[in-house]
Here is the input.
Amino acid sequence: MKDAPYHHGALRDALLEAAERVLERDGLPGLTLRAVAREAGVSHAAPTHHFGDLAGLLSELAAIGFQQFHAAMTQAGAADGSPETGMARAKAYVGYAQAHPGLYGLMFRTERLDMKRPALDQAASASFTELVGAVGASRHEQISEQAMSLDQAAAIARAWCLIHGFTMLLLDGRLSNILRRLPAGTDAETLLDAMLRAPVGRPGA
Amino acid sequence: MKDAPYHHGALRDALLEAAERVLERDGLPGLTLRAVAREAGVSHAAPTHHFGDLAGLLSELAAIGFQQFHAAMTQAGAADGSPETGMARAKAYVGYAQAHPGLYGLMFRTERLDMKRPALDQAASASFTELVGAVGASRHEQISEQAMSLDQAAAIARAWCLIHGFTMLLLDGRLSNILRRLPAGTDAETLLDAMLRAPVGRPGA
DNA sequence: AGCGAAATCTTTACAGTGTAAAAATAGCGA
DNA sequence: TCGCTATTTTTACACTGTAAAGATTTCGCT
Here is the structure.
């Protein structure tokens, strides 16, 4: 049982786990390179060797976020195109973001990430592919990612923008304006359910 | 003609204008207290007296953003409830965010703002009230902000989440995945148009 | 008009950050 | 065992936000 070896052995993974802990505990503003190093019990410059710079560490962490998110999404039900599954997946989407608000926020904070990092690029693409598949299934057709029609793209954008917008506004506390004025005890999931149930045309038509 | 008086005279406004310039030029990461002071030509501690701290300055700037946004929205057409006006206003929404990406991002970066600041609270509330009015008009009814039905809340959330989600994903560069695979020359506005045209039910149904 | 008080701005200082470079340590193949 | 490389620490620097003290101007009151 080593108590403080010079060579950690698995510092890379340890740093990522430490980063996730710091993010959950102190939020995005507290997620600094030095804080992560402290949490992992190493010197503040140790992460540099494994991740290059801060954007590198954050990007690898965001990649893990996308993988977790992807797993939560597939676990919520295969994309069979049924309305019930669609609703369940939408709730799983928001549910993941509520369970990991810092991580979800990080995944879409482009200016702090390096999207060219293979791990992040791959993980994000995988999630996107899954979204495309789910929307395709609901339309009973297969959507090619290479060349899609404007109609298909619009359907994908509608689904994604609705859920992502809801998630962001919810995490940013901007939906409390609405929730507060609803019958007492109405929670976000109820609002989400109502929002997705009825069809919508032009902005508020 | 004074060339460098000790008392600036109108430093508060000058700092806000400097902050807007810095934000447009260097983006959100470059918008620091000291950078704003440099841009305005004063010492780095001068802003403290007028805004208290960084969150104070950013909040006042975000308030200006909401006012500009509000003005752009009303200028795009009165909320008469017609589909054409609704579409025009949606495009004005995204158009404003594209013209002022840093400012729009700041307006929704809750962790860097102090929402209790009167100016910000008022400006944000005014924009929200306008949204409620627009959605109400499209439904040919008046929505009370005090107590709204779940149906009304869902309609508001649908419109807002769709547009805000689209805007955020667009500014974060996440829609390029879709735009790139569309017929050559398809721009964001075309996708927005298509997205808002057709009705949508459950996520991708 | 003049004088004290308040407002405004600068200077100085401190803890924290990311990053780069050099030094120290450990593991590993020959 | 020796040398090489990977890993980690130490040191240093420029930058940040904030607090406190000093300097300067303006304002209010008599």
In short: Chain B has a mean pLDDT of 92. Residues 6-8, 11, 42-46, 49-50 of chain B lie near DNA strand C (CB under 10 Å from a C1'). Chain B touches chain A through 68 residues (CB under 8 Å).
